[in-house]
Design brief:
Blueprint: H1 6-35, H2 37-42, H3 51-60, H4 65-84, H5 100-105, H6 113-120
The structure holds zinc ion.
Length: 130
């Protein structure tokens, strides 16, 4: 397996952290927006509650999105873990580095665009590269 360059690793780290922030932003919006006034007025749910705490709270609300969000955040943590070990951003199939543009739109893409195309057939068409 190729060794990832430090620059690439840093850019991917930024990418994942930005995605994580976006994800958390959505979770917070859903949590504080929909369950709304009640929770906020209770004042016992600080905005800076830890990641897991917020997920637990989300689950307690019984909101339909809780499961989806938890899965997304779990995948995100796994991706960050793999990146720290230098294993993120490589194609599962051929071991090549996955294009950063592709990871930008699909941070959890398991394989490079050519393997993806081979797997699924040319659904994107030959002119489109992600
Ligand atoms: Zn590949």
């Amino acid at each position: 397996m190729t060794r990832m360059s430090r620059e690439r690793q840093e850019r991917l780290m930024e990418l994942l952290l930005a995605e994580k922030r976006r994800l958390w932003g959505e979770v917070r919006r859903e949590l504080f927006g929909q369950v709304g006034g009640e929770l906020q007025s209770q004042n016992d749910l600080p905005q800076d509650v830890g990641d897991r705490g917020l997920i637990d709270t989300l689950e307690d609300t019984g909101m339909a999105v809780a499961d989806i969000r938890r899965q997304e955040l779990t995948r995100m943590d796994e991706a960050l873990g793999r990146l720290k070990e230098g294993r993120y951003g490589f194609c599962d199939e051929c071991g090549a580095e996955i294009d950063e543009g592709r990871l930008r739109v699909a941070p959890y893409a398991p394989c490079c665009i050519s393997c993806q195309t081979r797997r699924e057939g040319p659904s994107y068409g030959p002119g489109v590269t992600l």
